[in-house]
Amino acid sequence: MSFLGFAQWLANQPWSIALHESLYGYPIVESVHVWALCLFVGLTIILDLRLTGLTFRTIPVSEVVRRILPWQFLGFVLMVASGVALFYAIPVRSYQNIFFRMKLVLLVVAGLNVWFFNSGVYLRVQAWDREPVPPARARFAGFASLALWFVIIFCGRMIAYNWFDCDKQPQPHIINTLAGCVAEAPAP
Amino acid sequence: MMATVAGLLWELAQWSEKTPLGTMIRNSEYAFPIIEFFHLAALAVIGGSVLIVDMRLLGLGLTKTSVAQLARDAQPYVTGALIVMLITGISLYTSEATKCYASAAFWIKMVSLVLAMAFTYTIKKRVTAGDEKTFSLATGKLVGVVSIALWFGVAWGGRWIGFGG
């Protein structure tokens, strides 16, 4: 089964339809997504600000990492759970939305950024834990994370708009390719 | 009295929609979404910088750092993000002010926002400026809970404006 087929199958599930058409269910899930944004992305920004040396300079980096990790994790779980539910409610349109696709790719990049940080400069954190301004690699990880999350928020917000939707033709070929539109309407 | 206030707010809404800013945003296909993005980005910043201090007041998170130090470091980000939120928020309002006027969620948000700002820049500011010795643990926890509740009310109300609530 193709991804599109899977999305179409999901869209026909009774619970998907129920969530999509619910008066309160869908808005509540959206609200949880926004709340979790404050918790998860908000705390990630706090850590990034420490890594870039912009603020919280007197707090050891490892302490910031350790002490906010459980809360970030909680925020992350809420974020993913509500995000999956939002996709489940509107699977086909989300799957064929360029902003949704961009967001997924950037989420992977943000994950890689964390992985590089943890398996690189953070291994030697004891050497720079109390430096007001951490070494260049740590600062880079911080700035990269800030930039990535702002672009991810941008993509997330833009999913709601239908400028590039497959049922809105004609679109430039590149858009239809990126969005995975299966059949292009003939040019007018 | 209430009728007069409501009348003034209705007039403000009608006037706002006619301003060049409101008209420009309403007539543009992309202005509203882009302003919304900046509004959301600032939300993430204010969310983190408010939460990190509130959590500390509740005895969670960065407990080895003093409340006063944490609040001092976070303050520019709270204020900076709030300024961005107000500028972008007012812009969004001008484009659909009469819709907002009729939205319960909008008014819940406005009341929460006024309370949250007043609380943040008076009581919470005074409590966090002192150290643990100048306020009791219970006071700190109460301030943390009230702050979280008020700001989450703002975020909740904001999201529901979009659902026509």
Plain-language structure description:
The complex is a heterodimer of chains A (188) and B (165). Chain A has 188 residues and is mostly helical. Chain A has one domain. In chain A, 71% of the residues lie in helices and 0% in strands. The longest helix of chain A is centred in the middle third of the chain and has 29 residues, at 61-89. The two termini of chain A are 33 Å apart. The relative contact order of chain B is 0.14. By secondary structure, chain B is mainly α. In chain B, helix 3 (31-57) packs antiparallel against helix 4, helix 3 (31-57) packs antiparallel against helix 7 (137-161) and helix 6 runs antiparallel to helix 7 (137-161). At the A-B interface, helix 3, helix 4 and helix 8 of A face helix 3, helix 4 and helix 7 of B.
Biggest beta sheet summary of chain B: none
* Rg of chain B (C-alpha, Å): 18 Å
Q: What's the SSE pattern of chain A? A: HHHHHHHHH
Number of helical elements of chain A: 9
Radius of gyration of chain A: 20 Å
Q: Largest interface by residue count?
A: A-B, 34 and 38 residues
- Element-level helix/strand string of chain B: HHHHHHH
The low-pLDDT segments of chain B are: none
Mean pLDDT across every amino acid position of chain B: 92
Write the layout of secondary structure elements.
The complex is a heterodimer of chains A (188) and B (165).
Chain A: H1 3-11, H2 14-21, H3 25-52, H4 61-89, H5 91-95, H6 98-118, H7 125-128, H8 136-158, H9 173-179
Chain B: H1 2-18, H2 20-27, H3 31-57, H4 67-95, H5 97-101, H6 104-129, H7 137-161
Helix pairs in contact in B: 2-4, 3-4, 3-7, 6-7
